[in-house]
Amino acid sequence: MIKIVLDCFGGDHSPEANVDGAIAALGQFDDLHLILSGDESALRKCLEGKSYDPSRIEFLHAPQVIGCNERPTDVIRLKRDSSMVKAIRLLRDDDSVAAMVSTGSTGALVAGALTRLGRLRGIIRPAFCPILPTMNGGLVGICDSGANVEVTPEHLRQFAIMASLYMENVYGVSKPRVALLNVGKEAEKGDELRQTAYKLLSETSEINFAGNMESRDLLSGNYDVVVADGFSGNVLVKTTEGTALELLGKLKKEIYAKFIYKLGGALMAPMFRSLKDFMNYQNYGGSVLLGTSKVVVKGHGSSKATAVCKCIEQAYRMQLSDLGGKIEDVICRYDHYEL
Length: 339
Prior knowledge:
Isopropylmalate Dehydrogenase, alpha/beta
C-alpha cells in the first residue's frame, strides 16, 4: 500500500477539485491510500454522495489555510494547523507516508519541504521539474523551473541527473536526451556559467547530453530534459503555456468571425478538441520537487480534478520506482556528495 497525503486547501478550486481528484486516483490504483489534509467537516461534505472505498481514505484535520500572498517562512512557522504544514509534518514523521501533493502556495511548500523534510543524500539543492507535451507526442521535463534563481554549474549537473532519472523511471523514456537552455546551440554560446556547465554536462557519463537548446525548440521533440536556472526555466515554462493558451483563444475568435470559417470549424471540431487537450496543462499533472528526502508534487494553483489526479499519479509512480534511492545512488558517485 502506498500512502500519499493530499493538501486539500490552498488551490483555486479547493477542496472540491482535490477531493474529486483523490477519488479518481483511488479508482486507478488498487494499492493507493490517501490522507486528506484540511478541515475535516468540509472534506466530509465534499465526499457526500460520491462512490469510494472509505477504508482507503483517512483525514488529517487542519482548520487553517495558507494564502498565496502570505510570507512563506512566516506561515510555515506560525500556521502550524494549516493543511499544508500538517501534511508536511506528517510526511516527515510517519515512515508509512510516502509522498505529498499540494496545489497551495509554491513558496510555502518549498520552504516547508526544505526546512522540515531535508534533502536526499548528496543533493545540494532540490529543483522543480514540470513536464510539457512535445510535437511528436512525447514529453519534456524542465529542471529547474523556479526553486533556484541563482545556480552553479554543479547545480545544473545535479538537475540534469535528477530529471533524467525522473523521465526514465516515471515516464519510461530510455536514455533521455538532455539539453542546456542557452541563447544559441553552439558550445561556446552563453555566459561563463553556461559555458562551464556545458563542459561539465559533456563529461557526465550518467546523462545523455545533447548540447545547448534555444527556447524556441522546447516542444520540438528533440529533447527529453531541459536544464536551466530557476528564473530562466520558470519564464520558459510560463511563456510556453501562455502562448499556447493565447493561440487557442485567437484561433477560436477567428473561427467565429465569419460564417464560412464556422462551417470549416464544425468539420474540424474533432481536431480542435484534440489540439485543446494536447495544449491543456491540466492533463499533465504538476511540478515535482526533485531532491527532497520524500516525494513532493506541486500542482498548479488552478488545478481541477483531472490535474489533481495526475499529480497523485506522479507521486505514486515516483514512489513505486524508488526514484529517490536511484537519485542518491548516482549523485553519490561524485566527490561532492557530502555538500
